[in-house]
Structures are given as structure tokens and as C-alpha cells.
Design goal:
The structure holds two protein chains of two kinds. Chain A is an alpha/beta fold. Chain A folds into two domains: about 150 residues, 2-Layer Sandwich (Nucleotidyltransferase, domain 5); about 160 residues, Nucleotidyltransferase, domain 5, CATH 3.30.420.40. Helices cover about 45% and strands about 20% of the residues of chain A. In chain A, a hairpin with a 4-residue loop joins β6 and β7. By secondary structure, chain B is α/β, with parallel strands linked by helices. Chain B has one domain: Rossmann fold (3-Layer(aba) Sandwich). In chain B, about 20% of the residues lie in helices and about 25% in strands. A seven-stranded mixed sheet of chain B has the order 1-7-6-2-5-4-3. Chain B is globular and about 40 Å long. The two termini of chain B are about 15 Å apart. Classes of the chains: A alpha/beta, B alpha/beta. Chains A and B meet through α2, α5 and α7 of A and α2 and β3 of B.
């Protein structure tokens, strides 16, 4: 089955053609990061207008890169939520219109489910259930247990800042450029050790995370001026990675998960990958970076199993904006 | 402005900040705009968690820094916006941000800017670190009659 997928929930306008939910024939991403750098961040109305400008060309490019026409597409999928309403509407309505025009089935996909299904784009055998998923990005930090396709039990998540956001804010405190994640990782590599530790919020008795205390502790450490940027970056990264890898590995053991699936942009952090692989009792699967950040290939991968079960979305169905694992 | 009643109080930690937010949340209604300014870690998101509680919102309120805006269903819909990376005031007018207040309660975190952003009635809250470790100081700056009303609901003025 060939699925044409569209994603426009936040910064990127993306389209992809995915075969049988596993093989990307194409994946095109038009990023607004440059545009938003001028505004210093995502701006809803600006983002919406830009998505509108990008969505047509991006879809055409995805079909061209895949070497196919709409005639060879079996279904169309688009991100339904969560995200910014103005942004979501552009991709979702483009998908509906194409499906209606071509007489094809249409399916709305949960963006977070899409992130998890980036793991199905990794070559080799498919992921094995039950699996524990760690979704770590700028906007989300969730631990989700998956017994089968489409079955999600959210067992923990952040109570304040997302992990990627914590990296960015720490980067800002340290005077590093946006986005903070890669810059902190680079600084930390230079230090290779630190003569102090920053606090971990273990949130005992839960599988929740909290990174706001670490943010404040980082601020105080910067203000005291006793340590250099690289040392603080190292201590910060170790604190985040320790909690993420510690909780994920413990939960994987308790639940008897057969595999750990990682998703979201923070999965690009080398220390996180190392520690997850070192501590988890089962194989840890991490998609390549281009499928960890927002893309449409992951939406096509998630759509495939829904469509295979005969599920479709009515064309009068609306987008949704809030983080909700029940809406998949 | 002479008709305003600014006032300031201190909270002893996160839970106290949250309780204060809850009290404010119970008083908020559709159309209200609350602007929070203050450095990283002074408790803007924490205060908003309390506001969410006071509005009987479903789900945990967390930081919208990256996603820009989170939306929570409650007694009134809570729109929680974070402009932490925005630097240019000029660009804000065309963004359609204020339209959200017509559909619910709009809480905007903007660390660098305070009162100057608010177009009409509402409440500006400035947060900063207190003298003691967990202490935070909150300064309430009401704008217009509705702002005054909200401050009164907090048991002041």
C-alpha cells in the first residue's frame, strides 16, 4: 500500500510517500526555522501563511521524488493533532481535498503516534510488542507502553518543561545559540567531566519527569561563576540523561517490555542513546535523526496499520490541538 | 496611573505559588487576559498550573515554550501561550493572539516584557526571585476595572 502523508503541526511543512508503512519512497520537509529565527520562534499566523505557501509544492515534490503520480497512491494521511490550529488546518485540509478529489481513503493521524511509528521506518525486522516508548522532543516528554498497534498507555510524562525545552533553556542560560541541544552536547564533549553534579528530580513513586528545578539550579550555578560553560553543560546533560535513561530502563524491566522505542528530536543526543543502550535490559531502537524531528514519513508509517484495519476518517472531522493519547 | 492598586506578595515555594494561581483561576472568566513576566525559573508555569486547577482544567499544565501554545478544556478554555523567544513587539499585533481571549482565558508568559504588551483590561503579574531559596515575589499590576476586580478577588486592595 502506497500512502501519501502530510504533516504541518508546527514548524515544518512535510510530505512523504510510504510503502507498506515501512519504506519511505520520499520524504520532503520544508522548514520554517530560518523564517522563525527572524521572529525568534514559532509565530502562529506567520506559520500558517507559510504552511499555505509550502504545502502544494511539498506534496508535488514528495510525489516527484517517489517517482509516482497520485494514480499510484492508495490512501492519503495527514496530521490531525496535537499542534497549532492554524498550522494543522493547512495540511489536514490539503489532505482531505486531495483525497476527495482523487476518490481515495483519508486518515487523520495523531502527531505523537507518528513520532513512535518513526521506529517502523528503521530497516530490519519490525518492532516487537510489548514495547516501551520514550517520546522526547522540544514539546513532549512521555513514557508510553504499547501492547499492540494503536494501544497506548501513558505511564509518565513531564510535569513542567519538556526535555528538549530544558536543553534549550539551559543553552540560553549558558549564552549558547538556539537550538540549545546540539550546542550543549558539543560543550559537554569538550569538558568530558565536571567536578560537581546538578540535581535530579526523581519524582519517586511515579514515572513522571520534572526539569524546572534543574533549570533553576543551572541558573544559580551560572550566576555563582565558579564553573565554566563546558563543565556546566556537561553536568546539565548528565542530569537530564540520567533521569531519562534511569526511568525508562527501570520501567522497561518492570513491564517486561521486549523492546524500547525512542522518538522525538532529543533522540539525536549521543549521551542519551549511549545510556539508554547501556542500561536497558532489552534492545533500544532509535530512528535516524531525519525521522526523529518532525516529518511526514512517520505519519505515513502510523497511517498504514490503521488503514490496513480498514479505518478511515470522515471528511467532516476536525483537527485537535491538545496532547491526547486517547485520540489515536 | 493613580487609579491602580499595585500590590506585591511573597510565596514560600512552588505549592504556594500554585495555590495563589488556583485562587486567581477560580475568579477568571471568558475574555480575561493575564500576562506573566519574569526570569527563567521564577514560577510562571507553576502559577499557570494553579490557574488551570482553578479553572477545573483537565490534564497537567506544562510549559508551552516550544509548541508556543497549549489549550486546556475546563470551566473556561485556558489558552497558555509562551512568547519566550519573541523579541519584537512590533510583530505581535498581526499575530491574532488576542482573538483567543474571545474564546476563553488567555495566559501569556513573556519573560522580557510586561505591562506594555497588554492592549486593554487585564492583569499583569511580575515574578522574581525572593531573598530566600524557594521564595518568589509576585507583583500584581491591574489594568482597567476588570484588572482591579481580579486583584480584589485575590483578597487585596
Amino acid at each position: 500500500m502506497n500512502v501519501l502523508a502530510i504533516e504541518s503541526s508546527c514548524d515544518e511543512t512535510a510530505a512523504a510517500v510510504i510503502v507498506d508503512g515501512r519504506v519511505p519512497r520520499s520524504s520532503v520537509v520544508a522548514s520554517q526555522v530560518d523564517l522563525h529565527a527572524r521572529y525568534g520562534g514559532v509565530v502562529p499566523e506567520v506559520a500558517s501563511r507559510q504552511h499555505l505557501r509550502n504545502v502544494g509544492p511539498v506534496i508535488e515534490q514528495a510525489l516527484a521524488d517517489a517517482g509516482c503520480t497520485l494514480a499510484e497512491i492508495d490512501a492519503i494521511a495527514a496530521t490531525r493533532g496535537p499542534g497549532l490550529a492554524g498550522s494543522l488546518l493547512v495540511g489536514y485540509n490539503a489532505g482531505k481535498a486531495l483525497a476527495y478529489g482523487a476518490g481515495l481513503p483519508f486518515l487523520g493521524v495523531n502527531h505523537l503516534e507518528g513520532h513512535i511509528y518513526a521506529n517502523w521506518l528503521v530497516e530490519g525486522p519490525e518492532p516487537v510488542f510489548p514495547a516501551l516508548c520514550l517520546v522526547v522532543s522540544g514539546g513532549h516528554t512521555d513514557l508510553v507502553f504499547m501492547r499492540a498497534h494503536g494501544q497506548y498507555e501513558r505511564l509518565g510524562g513531564t510535569r513542567d518543561d519538556a526535555a528538549g525545552e530544558a536543553f534549550d533553556k539551559a543553552g540560553r542560560l549558558l549564552g549558547l545559540p538556539f537550538p540549545g541541544g546540539p550546542h550543549i552536547a558539543r560543550e559537554a564533549d569538550q569538558a568530558a567531566s565536571a567536578p560537581f553534579e546538578l540535581p535530579r528530580a526523581w519524582m519517586h513513586g511515579t514515572y513522571d519527569f520534572s526539569f524546572s528545578g534543574l533549570k533553576t539550579a543551572t541558573l544559580h550555578t551560572v550566576e555563582r561563576g565558579q564553573y565554566g560553560v563546558s563543565e556546566i553543560a556537561f553536568a546539565f546533560q548528565e542530569a537530564v540523561v540520567d533521569v531519562l535513561a534511569g526511568k525508562t530502563s527501570r520501567l522497561a524491566r518492570e513491564l517486561g517490555a521486549k523492546e524500547v522505542l525512542v522518538a522525538g528530536g532529543v533522540a539525536a543526543n549521543r549521551r542519551l542513546r549511549e545510556e539508554l543502550r547501556r542500561r536497558c535490559p532489552v534492545p533500544v531502537r532509535i530512528p535516524p535523526p531525519k525521522f526523529c524531528t518532525d516529518n511526514a514519513a512517520m505519519i505515513g508509517a502510523a497511517a498504514n496499520y490503521h488503514l490496513a484495519l480498514g479505518e478511515t476518517s470522515p471528511l467532516d472531522e476536525d483537527i485537535f490541538t491538545t496532547n491526547n493519547w486517547a485520540r489515536v | 496611573m493613580a487609579d491602580q492598586h499595585d500590590f506585591e506578595l511573597a510565596t514560600g515555594g512552588e505549592e504556594e505559588t500554585r495555590l495563589l494561581g488556583e485562587k486567581l483561576g477560580r475568579a477568571l472568566r471568558k475574555g480575561d487576559v493575564v500576562l506573566l513576566s519574569g526570569d527563567l525559573g521564577t514560577g510562571k508555569t507553576c502559577l499557570t498550573q494553579g490557574i488551570g486547577r482553578g479553572l477545573n482544567c483537565q490534564g497537567n499544565v506544562n510549559s508551552p515554550s516550544f509548541v508556543l501554545m497549549n489549550e486546556y478544556d475546563g470551566r473556561e478554555t485556558l489558552f497558555h501561550v509562551d512568547l519566550y523567544r519573541i523579541e519584537d513587539v512590533e510583530e505581535l499585533d498581526e499575530l491574532g493572539l488576542w482573538d483567543y481571549a474571545e474564546r476563553g482565558v488567555l495566559v501569556i508568559e513573556w519573560p522580557e516584557r510586561g505591562a506594555e504588551l497588554l492592549p486593554g483590561d487585564g492583569l499583569v503579574i511580575e515574578l522574581r526571585y525572593g531573598d530566600m531559596d524557594r521564595q518568589r515575589r509576585l507583583k500584581f499590576l491591574p489594568r482597567g476595572p476588570r484588572g482591579e476586580e481580579l486583584v480584589r478577588s485575590l483578597g487585596a486592595a
